[in-house]
Amino acid sequence: MLSQALSRVVAVQPLLDAVERDQADPRAAFAQFLIGQLVTGKVLGHHRDLTLVRIENHTVAMRLPRHAAQGETLKLSFAGHMPQPVFVLEAGDAQTSSVPQLSQTARMLSEIMQRVPERSLPTLTPPAPLLDTPPASPTELAIALRGALVRSGLFYESHLANWAAGRDSLEGLLREPQNRLSGEPAALAAADAGGKASHPLHTLLTQQLQVLETPQFAWRGELWPGQPLEWELQREPDARDGQAASHTPASDTWRSRLRVTLPTLGEIDIELRLDAQQAFAIRIIPTDADSLLRLRDSQPHLNARLLAAGLNLAALDIRPDEHA
């Protein structure tokens, strides 16, 4: 069943011992592994709810779905980097082979990606508004939007590694869907037994795989009751992407697009571009002609407000909707 397969997927992080974390890149530690390759790990001990395992001369921490005694040998298959190294805990009677082969879970992940429409954009749709009432300040809204993105579950494995290294909180992890939804046995049973209905974690896993493949996604929901927002975010393709040595997250350029309907200005599209120098280029496109005039009249004031808020503003453009 899907729930059983997912429970055997475990991410890892290199450790020097139970307290001191190794700062080496965990991706490099297992760079020679092929997806589906069977390996063995020896249980060295435990630290809190993590199990310390020795794999190919590397000590890693795993959160296993079952208790493993010190000295026990685990049979694992390599599932790739998502973004940390991920292994699948094989059944106890699995036959170890030196020939790389895809595990059941690896095949399941491949099938999931094959079912995703070619141009489907992973979309987060929260079940409730972010705020109960309109915010008292822009800061309150910004914090709510950031929380909706950060704790959406898309980056759970990265946050799990940060938590193991002391850079994230347990309270924050518990707010993510992987922890909130995994404790719903009725929903899991219905998703597995029906065959057609997808459990929310199945959908989230698909979205994670899509974001790993192409860094872009959408958020569609209500900011507060009656105030919808459509938000798209993507990393722009960069010629340096194929040059791992020169490309860093700090050199990325991001493009964001927001569509919102306001009480006095009507429907507005806002396009933002953040470059590697942390400079913003903003384009505001109102649908209504009167709103266009009002925004252009207020552009100097808006420009001053953005600069006062600390934005490195490269450009601010207010233009009509060419498709209206």
The gist of it:
This protein has 11 helices and 13 strands. It is an alpha+beta fold and about 325 residues long.
Chart the SSEs and their pairings.
Blueprint (H helix, E strand, L loop, with lengths): L1 H6 L1 E6 L11 H4 L8 E10 L2 E6 L2 E5 L10 E9 L3 E5 L14 H12 L7 E2 L13 H13 L5 H9 L5 H5 L2 H4 L4 H10 L5 H14 L2 E9 L2 E9 L18 E9 L3 E9 L5 E7 L2 H9 L1 H10 L4 E6 L6
Parallel strand pairs: 7-8, 12-13
Antiparallel strand pairs: 1-4, 1-6, 2-3, 2-5, 3-4, 5-6, 8-9, 9-10, 10-11, 11-12
Give an overview of the whole structure.
This protein is of the alpha+beta class and 324 residues long. The chain has a domain of 106 residues. The chain contains eleven helices and 13 strands. The strands form two sheets. A seven-stranded mixed β-sheet has the order 7-8-9-10-11-12-13. A six-stranded antiparallel β-barrel has the order 1-4-3-2-5-6. The longest helix has 14 residues. It is elongated. The relative contact order is 0.09. The N terminus is likely disordered.
Strand elements, count? 13
In DSSP terms (H or I, runs of 4 or more residues), the helix count works out at: 11
Read across the widest sheet, the strand sequence of neighbours is: 7-8-9-10-11-12-13
Largest sheet: 7 strands, mixed
Oligomer: single chain
